[in-house]
Amino acid sequence: MAVPLACAAPALAAPDPVETLATTVCQACHMSDGNSVVPQFPKLAGQQATYLEKQLADFLEGRRRNEVMEPFLSQVKARDIKELAAYYAAQVPGPGVVLDPELAEAGRRIYEDGNEGAGVPGCEACHQLQGEGNVRYPRLAGQHQAYTIQEMLDFRSGQRANDKGGLMRRISERLTDEEIRAVAEYIAGL
Amino acid sequence: MKTRLLVVSLLALPVLASCAESGPPPRAEESGHGGQVWNEMEGEKLQALGAAGDAARGAITFEVCEGCHRNGGAGRVNGSYPRLAGQHAPVLIKQITDIRAGRRTNHKMVPFSGADVIGAQDIADIAAYLAAQPVTPDNGRGPGDDIERGGQLYARDCATCHGEFGKGAAARFYPRLSGQHYLYLLREARAIRNGERGNSNPEMVQAIKAYSDADLEAVSDFVSRLPPG
User: Fold this and answer.
1) What are B44-55's pLDDT values in tens digits?
2) Does 3.40.50.1110 match the CATH number of domain A17-89?
3) Residue scoring higher pLDDT (B5 or A162)
4) Does domain B12-131 have CATH number 1.10.760.10?
5) Where do the domains of chain A lie?
6) What is A101-188's CATH number?
7) Mutate to test the interface with B, among A170, A172, A173, A183 (most CBs of B within 10 A)
8) What sections of chain B are H helices per DSSP?
9) Mean local confidence (pLDDT), A148-168
10) Within an 8 Å CB–CB cutoff, is residue B114 touching chain A?
11) Which residues of B touch A137 (CB under 8 A)?
């Protein structure tokens, strides 16, 4: 199975082992081009390389835990992280699907302005207005609603605690469930 | 002498930082008139004041703050978040380090300005960036019904420190007030009068202590109309 996929990449004489890993093992959930179709599995296409490197290192070193990902981590070597990250960063992100435009509009206000009463900063300051992120902050644009909601709830409960300075843990604590659903809906449409 | 002071404060820094995180927040009486020296020069404040701030780097680090203080530190007209653009660098450094250390209570901001998010050099960089931002004339203004009296109060009680046009004085840690949003000016003037803002200049507390709410509104309204430049 690995061979025909690797041969499909024209420039490569021999299959690149890291790319083969992505297109055989990881593709089961994230798809070969990083545009996962299962809403619980994050899209990786077009994600910031610096962010992907950090997450993979965090997974390998146990700072980020997830029982679905864990069985596959033994196949990832620390020296492959840079190349894996570059591979997904170079893929073209496909658009997300907004299911509830009214909810997305409520989410836009949180994304751009935050919530002053609760002290929620606007997400755009760090993740950028179009959700593309930058070398310091991850891309959110077009992400599956279910994944975004899950991460926000995990930050809030402390299940995910690998965010530097606890920034996302503090932000998610200040958001209501309804606000999380709304902002996830808006992010899907970016 | 000065270098020795700096070295001592550098050595003391980790201890101070961990106290700031885990210790109970100091109470209002401890600052200003309650025995503690106003604006004491120590720890990370001294470090940030002594560091050469890099405005270009500060523009990047300021991303962490922008979700509340908005683009370029413009703040919000409703006063929920103050304008930081054009504020003097030493004033910004004093206020940020006061907030970090809990001398000035600000629950909303604390998680985004702690030592695990920004260091002393970052504070110096952000201060250099903000100080160079233009003060635009689109700040929130007061109702405009008692400005004349506000002007008289200001000239009598405030101008000595904050300056005739509200430009403040960087070297003395007197904030620029011109261009600030009315509702923020009013809230802070009230907090300083009521002794609710820790490490407030004791002479300023004296100057404003006898003000009624109507006086605070009149003087804040006048200040919100000073030319921003």
Assistant:
1) 999 999 999 999
2) no
3) A162
4) yes
5) 17-89, 101-188
6) 1.10.760.10
7) A170
8) 2-22, 43-50, 55-61, 63-69, 89-100, 120-131, 147-157, 159-162, 182-193, 202-208, 213-224
9) 97
10) yes
11) 63
